[in-house]
Amino acid sequence: MILERENSQFELTDELIEQVELCVENKDDKELKRVLNEFHFADVAEILDELDLEDSVYVIKLLDSEITSEILMELDEDIREKVLKNLSAKEIAEEVEELDTDDAADMIAELPENRQAEVISKIEDEEHRDEITELLAYEEDTAGSLMAKELVKVYETWTVGGCLRRIRGQAKEVTRVHSIYVVNKEEKLIGRLSLKDLIVAKSDQKISDISKDTVDSVNVNDDLEVVAKVMAKYDLEAIPVVDDNQTLLGRITIDDIVDVLKEEAEKDYQMAAGLTGDVEADDSILELTRARLPWLVLGLFGGLGSVFIMKGYENIMETVPSLFFYTPLIAAMAGNVGVQSSAIIVQGIANDNVKGSMGSRLLKEVGLSLINGFVLALLVILFGFIIGQDTTESLAIAVSMMSVIVVAALVGTFVPIILDKRGIDPAIATGPFITTSNDILGIYLFFVLSGLIIGF
Amino acid sequence: MILERENSQFELTDELIEQVELCVENKDDKELKRVLNEFHFADVAEILDELDLEDSVYVIKLLDSEITSEILMELDEDIREKVLKNLSAKEIAEEVEELDTDDAADMIAELPENRQAEVISKIEDEEHRDEITELLAYEEDTAGSLMAKELVKVYETWTVGGCLRRIRGQAKEVTRVHSIYVVNKEEKLIGRLSLKDLIVAKSDQKISDISKDTVDSVNVNDDLEVVAKVMAKYDLEAIPVVDDNQTLLGRITIDDIVDVLKEEAEKDYQMAAGLTGDVEADDSILELTRARLPWLVLGLFGGLGSVFIMKGYENIMETVPSLFFYTPLIAAMAGNVGVQSSAIIVQGIANDNVKGSMGSRLLKEVGLSLINGFVLALLVILFGFIIGQDTTESLAIAVSMMSVIVVAALVGTFVPIILDKRGIDPAIATGPFITTSNDILGIYLFFVLSGLIIGF
């Protein structure tokens, strides 16, 4: 029954959940501990995500805070919030004591404000408490908000042998030693070395002789996106965080950046799909409605706008009815082209590969959309020919569509660029926003241009 | 002029590029080396990305292969391909000698098939050559294709002291030591320990006494998505790769997984935006057309489908013209709702949080879209009232739209689920595919239902 985690993937089965539920029901603490201790805390968190709140709280109160603190951090955010509500400030403080400062600060930051101070005051380890308080002060989405205070630091004047001895002390508190940071006597970051360098070196060498004096670092106020970019570009697994005076404050590890990257990607994807806020398939109907309705209402207004425009052309319904049959097609093409253009530009901006002048970009986009538009226009003329449509009408429709495509591509390209120049996240210009504005603009242009060609 | 990389972000300036170009033009090798050696290889790659091909090749041939091999790996893929075309098989082999096995195999895999064997035969280090050949044999997107052969391995029977001595040898070849893998005499992976554990332990302790005997590993044939999921879930920075017999074959590090995650996210985003293939803003017009036109043609066919449907209702143009004004709105709503639903489900599937039965999901989606649809329908009725539209018509439009929204949500939800169950990437069901099919379906339903209500 018990799944072996080593060498085989953990699988969350109904049997396992039932087994845990049964243990909780029977208050069979010994068996419960035996079962759960087989698993990694991330797996236990997955189990708890499936249990009733009451049962989850029971498990959290039962197991050692050394493990439960890690389990809590891995829980689904909504569930963690509910579980923490059922713990006393003292109990939360005990969990916090076990966590690294970065996770500890995150856990406290999620609490309601009135509880935060209470929990902090119950943390017994004074240094830990001060460090957490420091971290809580940094603004969201800055390097400071993600860093941990735990790191291994040595002074440039130490010897390798002395260093190894002292590191034995420091390293016990640090889960993973990536780099050892070298500071001068003013605590300024001046270099780094790896454990490997230390092991390979001779015992009486001085740190300053074996340390690398180029060391990447980020400022404590840098945006997380910048941190992620630097770490990905230089393949770093940890990066030290300094203040404006180059004083070493903390470090950020790559596993936290992986989470940031995943969240960013999901957010962009959702924004492009017309979802506001961070929703998941298993959220409540209310939360999902809140994420979905706003963009739909925007889309509705766009659609009502086109109703208005078309109503204005009601008088030509008898003479050229076919124009009206093509409006969904025109709207769709304008929307699709706009989304394509904006997606490429938004990604290009994110990856810093939108180069060259606005003029050359304009030319490129016009050229590109002319090619696409021309091929599509030919297909429309062919279609018109097959269904025996009036040739002038077909031509008018094809040419207008082509123009709509060019304009839609330009809107899709330049709206994100302009937003970005003004310091607004260009990602909001993808998806429904571009689709909707291009829908209206496209239909308007379509009627105006067709009118010029057919003559109405 | 020279930018300091330490403590300040590298910035690619026009002046810098000009300076490098000038050095190349004057064949001032000494100055060129001086300038470029100031920078990290990832920065030099950014500079080369901007140079003419000829100049880039000049720089690559000038600098030491120890550096240029890394620069090459950081170059834009298209540019790397062109540069490698200008190097002899011998020169490429020299670059490959400097790279870790995983990067070496990647570089060779990108070469045209006829050159691959030639380059491999020119690699002087026999072990390196054999390891690269082994890596090239693994299928794309498997753990084997991403892993490196470089790792630090110790036998369970060694002592800590002996281990440290031997590691000094192995570690020189391994850029970063994350974990030390413990194997038994059959080379089977049986545990791991960190350098930290080793440093903290006493010299005469046996490895088997201090090593952790639970060790996460992946199978060499596991999909990269699985590897990424395991590493992110358990916050691993490296994971050993084993074969079916648990024999240790290699290891995958988190920096490579970061790249995989970024690529996956960009691919999904592009797929949702209706782009095929991996394109960038700075690709050629031809490449961009190839990525954009296919989905646009699909959209066009969808649009032509709705032309057909509407043509079938031409006879009611005189009696209820307003229906035709609403078709772009209906198509937009059907498309938007479909994209929202599919995006949530596709992400849910990727994150393994789509739980519960199909029946409960059906109920939830119907409930959700009824709520959204109801609010939107009210707005449509209000709009009709304001513009003085016939009440029956407004009602018919509102009710039909609501039904279209429900159906569109169901299509958006269940198409990805069904694709996933059949082993097809559900991400293809987002974006243009869902939009287009929902457009046609929506307009068809709209006319049928309005007809039933109004009576035509």
Automatic annotation (TrEMBL), chains A, B:
<dbReference type="InterPro" id="IPR006668">
    <property type="entry name" value="Mg_transptr_MgtE_intracell_dom"/>
</dbReference>
<feature type="transmembrane region" description="Helical">
    <location>
        <begin position="293"/>
        <end position="313"/>
    </location>
</feature>
<keyword id="KW-0129">CBS domain</keyword>
<comment type="function">
    <text>Acts as a magnesium transporter.</text>
</comment>
<dbReference type="InterPro" id="IPR000644">
    <property type="entry name" value="CBS_dom"/>
</dbReference>
<feature type="transmembrane region" description="Helical">
    <location>
        <begin position="325"/>
        <end position="346"/>
    </location>
</feature>
<feature type="domain" description="CBS">
    <location>
        <begin position="147"/>
        <end position="208"/>
    </location>
</feature>
<dbReference type="GO" id="GO:0046872">
    <property type="term" value="F:metal ion binding"/>
</dbReference>
<keyword id="KW-0472">Membrane</keyword>
<dbReference type="GO" id="GO:0005886">
    <property type="term" value="C:plasma membrane"/>
</dbReference>
<dbReference type="Pfam" id="PF00571">
    <property type="entry name" value="CBS"/>
</dbReference>
<dbReference type="Pfam" id="PF03448">
    <property type="entry name" value="MgtE_N"/>
</dbReference>
<dbReference type="InterPro" id="IPR036739">
    <property type="entry name" value="SLC41_membr_dom_sf"/>
</dbReference>
<comment type="similarity">
    <text>Belongs to the SLC41A transporter family.</text>
</comment>
<protein>
    <recommendedName>
        <fullName>Magnesium transporter MgtE</fullName>
    </recommendedName>
</protein>
<dbReference type="InterPro" id="IPR046342">
    <property type="entry name" value="CBS_dom_sf"/>
</dbReference>
<keyword id="KW-1133">Transmembrane helix</keyword>
<keyword id="KW-0812">Transmembrane</keyword>
<dbReference type="InterPro" id="IPR006669">
    <property type="entry name" value="MgtE_transporter"/>
</dbReference>
<dbReference type="Pfam" id="PF01769">
    <property type="entry name" value="MgtE"/>
</dbReference>
<dbReference type="InterPro" id="IPR006667">
    <property type="entry name" value="SLC41_membr_dom"/>
</dbReference>
<feature type="transmembrane region" description="Helical">
    <location>
        <begin position="431"/>
        <end position="454"/>
    </location>
</feature>
<feature type="domain" description="CBS">
    <location>
        <begin position="210"/>
        <end position="267"/>
    </location>
</feature>
<keyword id="KW-0813">Transport</keyword>
<feature type="transmembrane region" description="Helical">
    <location>
        <begin position="366"/>
        <end position="388"/>
    </location>
</feature>
<keyword id="KW-0479">Metal-binding</keyword>
<comment type="subunit">
    <text>Homodimer.</text>
</comment>
<keyword id="KW-0460">Magnesium</keyword>
<feature type="transmembrane region" description="Helical">
    <location>
        <begin position="394"/>
        <end position="419"/>
    </location>
</feature>
<dbReference type="InterPro" id="IPR038076">
    <property type="entry name" value="MgtE_N_sf"/>
</dbReference>
<dbReference type="GO" id="GO:0015095">
    <property type="term" value="F:magnesium ion transmembrane transporter activity"/>
</dbReference>
<keyword id="KW-1003">Cell membrane</keyword>
